[in-house]
Amino acid sequence: MDEMQPIGIFDSGVGGLTVVRFLFANLPKERIIYFGDTAHIPYGSRTPQEIIAFGDEIVSFLMRYGVKAVVAACNTSSSVSLPYLKEKFSVPILGVLEPGVRAALKVTRNKRVGVIATTATVNSGAYPRAFRRQDSEVEVFTQACPLFVPIVEGGRMESPEAREAAREYLAPLKEAGIDTLVFGCTHYPFLAPVIREVLGPDVRLVDPAEETVKELAVLLKKDGGRPGNSPVGSRGPHAPRHLFFTSGSAVSFYDSGKKFLGEFPFTVEQVSLDGRKGS
């Protein structure tokens, strides 16, 4: 790896900005190339074949920028397409699923862990398998939350719709007696206040994005990674030039970036999955 090479990040939409937030805070000198596939959101209702195809095209797009590592900041992609992507591409590709599992196992007290995720992630069974590989005694309760991604993408995190959906989705997990909840989709941390309101203070919330960035930092440290501290990335004339791409509306993505990161001093370019500029 060359320390001047950028880090590629992709997600089905704006959810991967949770990973970007932690990257800015912990690796501010690293350059980021981000792709949000909002034209095909939500991934949760897509077939495995579609999800693999999207991941293949996106990573191919990121490779044009000479990325030294890629973060699949989408749990659905991490659950479905990661083995294929790791085999096909030569750069390290990190998912968010395994880091989330490791983080949850560190904090659970009663070994009853809930996972909220997209329908595709839940149907893949990836989270229960990952937990069993690391601790055969842990009980995992998964819950699909198909309305959460559209709610976040639409900027309706504090709406009555969000609260009603959260109460419905989280009721079975409360009944199961979980003491830890994993955000099995990078969009879901933006709903943390509502989820906390429903679950109460005794359930620990695990954001895999934070643990993923920690593992990325370890990987980069072996090849010149430079940890630091900055809320929105380095500034000044020598700051890295981050690039943000989306397959959907650039204006919508930019507005979401400002809302979710507090500020978003970047431009967003619309492209299709084959790399051609959008309209």
Task: List the defining traits of the structure above.
disordered C terminus, alpha/beta, 12 helices, Rossmann fold, six-stranded parallel sheet, four-stranded parallel sheet, 2 domains, single chain, 279 residues, globular
Describe the model.
It is a single chain. With 279 residues, the protein is α/β, with parallel strands linked by helices. It has two domains: 7-96 and 210-270, 3-Layer(aba) Sandwich (Rossmann fold); 98-207, Rossmann fold. The chain has helices spanning 17-26, 48-63, 75-80, 82-88, 97-107, 119-124, 126-134, 148-153, 160-176, 192-199, 208-221, 250-261, and strands spanning 7-11, 32-36, 69-72, 93-95, 112-117, 139-144, 180-184, 204-206, 243-246, 268-270. The strands form two sheets. It has a six-stranded parallel sheet, with helices on both faces. Strands 6-5-7-8 form a four-stranded parallel sheet, sandwiched between helices. α1 packs across α11 (208-221), α5 packs across α7 and α9 packs across α10.
Sum this structure up briefly.
Helices cover 44% and strands 16% of the residues.
